[in-house]
Specification:
There is one protein chain. It contains two helices and five strands. The chain is an alpha+beta fold. The protein has one domain: YaeB-like fold. A five-stranded mixed sheet has the order 1-5-4-3-2. A hairpin with a 4-residue loop joins β4 and β5. The longest helix has 9 residues. The model has no long low-confidence stretch (mean pLDDT 94).
């Protein structure tokens, strides 16, 4: 995807669920910001209002689930996980 939506550049906000998963899945805020910076694709999620970000981390493919908060102009990161083949 080459045309990123306007909310793509909004400040990130981390959900409580994500903060727990960061520990469980051994990645940091810095890692997540790098994943977002190097995203390769963006698709609508089955959950209305949420999006799937395709990216890479630690030599593997990852998905990051985000939800734009249009009222506060924040991009809420819901979760991130490695994609298993």
């Amino acid at each position: 995807m080459t045309n990123w939506p306007e909310w793509w550049d909004w400040e990130l906000e981390f959900s409580p669920h994500l903060l727990k998963r960061m520990v469980d899945r051994s990645f940091s805020e810095t890692d997540l910001r790098m994943m977002m910076e190097h995203a390769t694709d963006l698709q609508e999620n089955v959950e209305p209002g949420r999006w799937i970000v395709e990216t890479k981390h630690a030599s593997g493919v990852w998905q990051v689930i985000v939800e734009p908060d249009t009222i506060d102009e924040l991009l809420v990161v819901i979760t991130a996980f490695p994609v298993t083949p």
